[in-house]
Amino acid sequence: MQVFTSVLVLGLCFTAFVITDIRGYKERKVNSTISIARVIGSNSISAIQFLDNVTAKEILKNLQNVEPDVINATLTDASRKTFANYTKPGFKPQRIDTSLNALQNQSEFSGNYLLVSEPITDKGEYLGTIFLQVEFTELEQIINQKLQITAILVLIGVGLAFLIAVINQRHISNPILSLVNIMKEIRESHEYQKQVEVKGKDEISTLSIEFNNLMQEVVRSHQKKDEFIGIASHELKTPLTSVKLYLESLSKMNHQQPTQLFIMKAREGVNKLHSLILDLLDVSKIQSGQLQLNLKELELENLVRECVQEAQMNNPRRLISLEIEAGETIVMADKDRLEQVIINFLSNAVKYSPEDKNIVVKAFQSKSSINVSITDFGIGIAPSEHAKIFERFYRATDSNSVISGFGLGLYICQQIIKRHHGTIGVESNINQGSTFYFEIPILKSHLKTMILAN
Amino acid sequence: MIKKLALYIITGILVTVSSSFEMYQTSEKEYLLKAAFLYRFADYIDWKSEESEEVFNIAILGESIILNPLMQISNDKRIRNKKIRVKQYSNIDDIEPCQMIFVSMSYKHPLEPLITKFSPQSTLIVSERIEDFNQGSHINFLISENKLKFEVNLKTASDSGLKISSQLLQHAMVVKQ
Q1: Is A47 in contact with B40 (Cβ distance < 8 A)?
Q2: Of B36, A48, B148, which is closest to residue A59 (Cα–Cα)?
Q3: How far is B37 from chain A (nearest CA, A)?
Q4: Are residues A352 and A395 in the same domain?
Q5: What is the pTM of this model?
């Protein structure tokens, strides 16, 4: 673009330059020819006066030396008859159109020729007119020369423009592109504390500095929000816990209907609220890096089995099948946290699939890890959403609004599995059900004993 | 304006006449040209004692039809911003001091008295016979290749204190040193 612009500008400049130059050349030529005509005219006065056309011819012949570009010269007398004429040797004698106004000095271009007429007067008396026909021998040469110069200068100009574009690229475009890349990276990774490198003192670095400041602001506001969530959930948890305890105690007493029903509904609500607050607290802990794992050797199949049993009890109308292809695999894990993950997966499966559909739980062992997956046959999740559902406060756009939740569960699961050095994921499609799975490494020492045992 | 137009016409006629041999034959036209030449000579010649005069006097010695065209010129034009007066004489003794004397072809007497009288006075003597030129006139008209030409005697001219410009000399057929 820069190069194109410079070519355009240079081209226009040089066209103007060449045109002006040619015009200047023609003007100079006209002026010099008029001067020559005047000199010849005044030299010819006496020749005309004394009817001496031999001398007049001699005078015209001198043109050959004075101005070789003159091809034809004609001297007319007062009656406008040809008095003397001259033709450059080697050229065809050409009758100059003497019908030009002989009483005025005039110049006109016809083709490659310039025709100049200059009246000859002596003491105000008109004696005759000198007509000169001049060839532009140098014009073509000058045009060629100018075009060459123009071509060279345009080339140099384009070269310079290209160079400037390259330098510009290095100093402007590249930093901007790298800034854009870092912004993209930050947006995708959510690592808002990442800073852009600031080089030099130009506008780009100002932009980078401002971007860094903005990001710091973002980080700060994130921190404030997390702090608030932490404090709020903590403060809410304490009174809620006592409400929960009292309600539990109340429910154990014998009540008549509908008191018993009301207590049950209140307990359900409080339990839901309690779990939401626990989620918030977890998130807050994760954000502040206070999520501590209580790692112990754990036999994962047992945990899975327990969780499935509990889920089956809570949802007696569902068929939850369990397939285990592993034996006594020991992992280093926080039992409560892993339980939290499995229950979360199971409750999601229940929430997002119709009651008449089965839920399949599988646990199988691979070479160095154990994989636990929970499959439902419900509404499924579009592939474009897969990465987002593990983000905080994210809920699938088309998810049923009847189903409540903050969208924190999967985020917490992801963070828990991450801290177990495992992977978490989903395989799903719209209306084709979903499979949520996690995979955590098997304890190495145990792996060894297993191999030995085999 | 009319004067100027008349001038163009006259000059036009003169030049046209000169270029055509057929027309040249009539002596009337020849004298038209001679008169014009006489008038032009004044531009190329310096007279030693010219400044004192207020009028440019031209004398014609002997009968000549040059009188009419010369009179015409004297009416229309001036020489060095001076009025032109033309007078015809038949006798050398009668000639009053003047700047130019035209010796007509019809004057067949020796020129010596004229030369003797006017040589110190710086007067240009123009003749139209080779005999007169040989006797000491400064400029002599002749016809060559059907064209009116003139010859110049530089010696007699400088004797009379006349300076003839080189521009005029380049058109002269013969220049006597």
Answers
A1: no
A2: A48
A3: 7
A4: yes
A5: 0.52
Any idea what the Cα angle at residue B84 is, between residues B4 and B164, rounded to 5°?
95
Q: What burial class does residue B92 get, using C-beta atoms within 10 Å of its C-beta: 0-12 exposed, 13-18 middle, 19+ buried?
A: buried
User: Strand runs (DSSP E) across A16-81, as ranges?
Assistant: 70-77
List, in sequence order, every residue forming a beta bridge with A315; answer none if it has no partner.
Answer: none
> B22: which 2 tokens?
């057929």
CATH number at residue A350: 3.30.565.10
A75 close to A58: Cβ distance less than 8 angstroms: no
DSSP state of A344: H
What total number of domains does chain B contain?
A: 1
Residues 6+ apart with CB under 8 A from A44: A56, A59, A75, A84, A120, A128, A130
For residue A34, give the nearest of A61, A59, A70 by alpha carbon: A70
In whole angstroms, what separates CA A287 from the centre of its chain?
Answer: 32
Residue numbers of the domain that contains A83: 2-142
From the candidates A43, A45, A49, A129, which should be mutated to test the interface with B, based on the most B CB atoms within 10 A?
A49
Over range A241-249, report the average pLDDT: 91
- Kindly report which listed range (A182-186, A287-291, A366-370, A393-397) carries the lowest average pLDDT score: A393-397
Residues of B in contact with A50 (CB under 8 A): 37, 40, 150, 168, 171
Q: Which among A381, A331, A6 has a CA at the least distance from the CA of A158?
A: A6
Locate the chain B residue with the closest alpha carbon to A121: B8
Q: Tell me the sheet residues that pair with A70.
A: A134
Confidence of residue A339 (pLDDT cuts 50, 70, 90): very high
The values of phi and psi at residue A199, to 5°, are -120, 140
Whether residues A356 and A427 share a domain: the answer is yes
Of A244, A269, A288, the position where a domain reaches its end is A288
Q: Is the peptide bond before A258 cis (omega within 30 degrees of 0)?
A: yes
The angle subtended at Cα A239 by Cα A236 and Cα A244, nearest 5°, is: 110
pLDDT band at A67 (very low <50, low <70, confident <90, very high): confident
Return averaged pLDDT per consecutive 10 residues of chain B, 177 residues in all: 59 53 61 91 81 83 91 89 90 89 90 87 90 90 89 90 89 85
At B20 the pLDDT is 47
